[in-house]
Structure formats: structure tokens, C-alpha cells
Amino acid sequence: MSERDYNRQAARRQRISKATLIVGVDVGNAFNALGFMNKDGKVLGSCSKLCNSREGFEQFVKMIEGLKAKHRLRDVLIGMEPTGHYWRKLAYFAKEHGYEVRFVRTTALKHHRELDESSSAKSDRRDALTIANITREGKYIDTVIEDGVLRQLRTLSKARERLLRYSVSAKNSLHAALDDYFPELHEIFRSMGARSLWVILEKCPFPEDVVLMKASTLQEMIARSSRKKAGSAGKAKAFYEAAQNSIGVKQIGTADRYRVRMCLEEVKRTVLTLKDMDRQLKSMVKDIPASSYLMSIPGIGPLSAAVFLGELGDPSHFHNAHQIVKYAGYDPQESDSGSRVGRKFISKKGRWLLRKYLFFMSMRVTVLSKYFHEYYHRKLETKNRVGQQPRRKEIICAVAIKLIKVIFALLRDKRSFEDTASPAVAIA
Description:
By secondary structure, the chain is of the alpha/beta class. The protein is built from 18 helices and 7 strands. The strands form 2 sheets. It has a 5-stranded mixed β-sheet. The protein has a two-stranded antiparallel ribbon with strand order 6-7.
């Protein structure tokens, strides 16, 4: 851990006063476990089973207010492990009641449990007290609970990413079906998302259906659904010849037709829903003033800006660019021992979707931005800490870190990016 991290942890400990009630929550699907401590680490109480219901949440507030009155405490700091999606209900309920909620890492809980107990034995009540102790020591994550348009952006971005993976799976399923029945289609239509392919598969999905149709009908179908209408005659001819000489399965039954129809419907549904989601994200990001500063960088469009801001949250919660670097999992990790100097690698902790989009954004800005293009080529000419030529992925990660620093400066100063060969913004 760096000096900066130790200082930040010390600042968190100073935030906790003698009047602070520290609550550790071990989150579960149906029940939660609670542990209560004061600043000195004295256990003030615990609860092994709190229901995820209105009655349970009201009991949660009643216990906190009762301990505050009993021990003359004024402040509440709640620490919890963000397990799956179960934490959201309780965390937002606590926020609505004015309690500060922070999160601890799963790895921190595991190692801290072994230090406290000298064993890996666990129970919900013990984990709740361990989480409270980690929170008391200031070893929680800087993440805060977001609401408003930024939370909406993040929710939609996550849903889009899940649907994107499902869309790829649906296209692969359709591709596999065509491999069985009409493999020659892959040479004529390269993409499973082509509208003209959808129209053809709806009317004549198998070679035996195509040979029964007129060439003029095929040409008209392709021309009506394709952007390149001039080449529809050639494509219709190639399509007809491919059907006549197809090596696909000949004996076509009801189940085969159902398979192709089902795969096609899934592809159409996912592709069209993704386009609708993109329109929603682009519309929502217009309501955020910070998006204009991001999109002033060549290579960053409204979709990338929407995902970035949704995953990042309120930029004012970050005091320096290093916090965002660590939040995205791009903080360099060392592996040195004695006289051995190892390669640096990124931690890959934090927001994986933020890290993914920063990588894509970095590849685009190195091509479209003079400033980042020059930075990329400077890195190509240098050697890494072990005296070797850096790999391309290492350089892209370095560009991502530089991009984070530039974005932080733009958001901090509320200014647009000036694309010059020399540094365009102050990034200190």
C-alpha cells in the first residue's frame, strides 16, 4: 500500500469520533446479520438474523436509534460487504434515514477474519462484527451510493452489457443453425444482424424454399431491405445459385424450421433492443453537464461518456486522479522481491465495466487525438522497468491512466479538451 493510501486511511479513522456508532452488516438474501461497535472497538451489540422486509428494516432503525440514545452517540457509519445485488435495498433504506453507508472488500473481510480469529472459521454474526471492525479502522472503499440520473445511467449500462453478451450468444446460435442448413449464406451475408438476411430468413430460410421462388422476387426482397440497392441483383443471383448447390442438410422438418425461426427472433429482439438502449443512454447523458467535457476529447462519443459517468458516479467524490485510476482497477501493482524487479501489472479491482470502456476509449483516442497519439508513440520508444520493450496492451493501459488524468482535470476545471501536440490541460 502506498503512502497516499495510508494517509487516506488515517483520514478515514479521524472521521470517526467518540460519538460515532459503527454498524457492520453481513448482507444475505433473506436475512442480514448486524454488529455494533464504538470508536474504541467495544462491541455494543449484535443481531444474527434481521429479515429483509419492512418489519426488519424498521427494526434495524429502531436498534440503531436505541443504541445511539443508550450510549449518547450522534453519528452513524454503516459498513457492509456488497454481496451480489442483495445490499441495495438495505443500503438505500439506510441512506434515506440519513446514515452514511460504506463498503468493504470481500478479500479484506477474509484476511481480517483470519487475523482476528487466527482461523478461517466464519459465521454471519462474526462476519458482521469483523466488517464493523474493518470500517472502524478506515479500511473501507471510497465508493458512495449514487442516485438520480447517474444511477439510472449505471443501471441501464449494466443491463445493456448483459444484453450485449446475450446478443452475441443469439447470433452464434443462428450462425450454427445456418451452418447446418444453409452454410453458403455466410459468404453472401457476413453479419447475422443484416436486415436483408432477416427478411430472407423470414420468407425462405432453407435452400428448398429459395429454389421455388423467382429471381425477381428475391431481388426485390433484398433491395427493399438493403441499403445498397444497386447490388441487389448480383446478391440475389448469388443467393439463388448458392441454394441450388447447397451442401446443407436436405431433410428439413418442423423442428428444423422452428429452430431457425426461434434463433432469428432472438437475434432481432436483442439487436433492436440494444439500439433502443443506445438511444436511451445518449438521451440521458445530455442532461449531465460533465458529458460535454468528456465528449470534447476526440474518440469519446455519447455512449462511452454515458457508461463512463454511470460507472464513475459523481466526479466531485474524487479528490485526485489516482483515486479514479484505482477505482477503475488501473492502479499499477509491483511484484518485487530483494534484487528481483518484476513487471508491473494492473490490479483489475474496482469497476470492471469502467475499466473495459476506458480500454476501448484509449484505443480510439490514440488514433483520433493528436495529444494521445503523440503520447502513445513516446511510450513505444521507451522501455519498461525491466528494460524490455513494452507490450501493446501495456501501452494502452498507460494511455488509459493518462486519459483518466486528463478527464479528471477537465471535470475539475469544467473546461473542454484542446487537442494539441503539447499537454492540453494541467493534470497535477
